[in-house]
Amino acid sequence: MNDDMKRILEKQHYHVVGEHSGVKLCHWMGEKLLRDRPCYKERFYGIESHRCLQMTPTVSHCTHNCLFCWRFQGMNELAIPNEDDPIEILDGCIEGQRKLITGYKGDARCSPEIWKEAFEPKQVAISLSGEPTLYSRLGEFIEECHKRNMTTFVVSNGIQPEVLEKLDPLPTQLYITVAAPTREIYKRLCVPLVKDGWERLQKSLEIMASLDTRTVIRHTLVDGWNIGWEKEYAHLDKMADPLFIEPKGYVYVGYSRERMTMANMPKYDKVREFGEKLGREMGFQILDEAPESRVLVLGKDRSDLIIGD
Predict the structure, then answer these.
(1) Residues 6 or more apart in contact with residue 164 via CB below 8 angstroms
(2) Would you tell me how many other CB atoms lie within 10 Å of the CB of residue 20?
(3) Which of 235, 229, 230, 237 shows the shortest CA–CA distance to 280?
């Protein structure tokens, strides 16, 4: 990673780890530590917000330049020439998060017990930025997390079907983001850096249906761009046969503000309407919702939601 990129990331409050990884506190870490308000992943899946490590092994590597993405996109890379060791990445991210939460200890609103628990993360969200499947040792990284009794969520854009097909071990929960209902919208909104991105995404959806792990389709909804087309989304979702579907509204933050406007951030009622219509197409129901995060989860059985149940 060059010095310019590192400065940009540190200005955005990332803790950079090694040559291509990073960790960053999400908004809900602070909310949980100071106000005991968890994020929707705790509500939906039982993942404790203050014990979640939000990180990436590919901080500046991605196969998309999505218009709605909040990260800096000026230095995209498609390959990692010298890959760091998975154990060193995990240790570095845990240590980085501990440094980032140090300041909360002196805040009277922060429970000492919860702050101490936050020093020992139990969940690794491999989703902060970039495309994690570009890290060829992703399976080894997941394995190390599982050895430490940490659950793992991987969020992918689905452009590396050959990686998903061979990934071993699989994460506790695998997401594929489907942010466009058609090839034309995909090209304009997701701005793929590979020519056959749409075809590769569909291949990943087909593979997802055969994977023996918890699976989720994420629909990032951008008003004026990709809301509606429930039948087209359902066609793609049925290929993946996911356990859950998460329609989630785009949030006007970070560098996306250079490409989007506040008008592109949908109100929750519009996200919910989309979810209701898609649910009818899929034979799914709304299992839970978090209006403050503009997200809901669709599925067939609420008893499947909580990890470990």
Answers:
(1) 133, 156, 158, 174, 204, 207, 208, 211
(2) 23
(3) 230
Asked if omega into 132 is within 30° of 0 (cis), the reply is: no
Other Cβ atoms closer than 10 A to 98: 15
Residue 309 banded pLDDT, cuts 50, 70, 90 = low
| Unique residue bearing structure tokens 């491999």 | 126
β-strands 15-17, 21-23 pairing: antiparallel
Q: What's the token pair of residue 225?
A: 């761009």
Taking residues 159-187, report their average pLDDT: 98
Sheet holding 214-221, edge to edge: 15-17, 21-23, 52-56, 123-126, 151-156, 173-177, 214-221, 244-249, 295-299, 285-290
Query: What 3-state class would DSSP assign to 179?
Result: coil
Phi and psi torsions of 268, nearest 5°: -60, -35
**Which domains can be identified in the chain, with CATH numbers?**
3-304 (3.20.20.70)
Tokens, residue 269? 């009622």
* Nearby residues of 102 by Cβ (< 8 Å), 6 or more positions away: none
Joined together, the tokens standing for residue 11 give 């200005």
Residues 25 and 48: their CA atoms lie apart, in Å, by 14
DSSP at 303: G
Task: Please state, as a whole number, how many other Cβ atoms lie within 10 Å of the Cβ of residue 171.
Answer: 27
Q: What is the pLDDT of residue 76?
A: 67
Look up residue 137 and give its amino acid: R
75: number of Cβ within 10 Å: 12
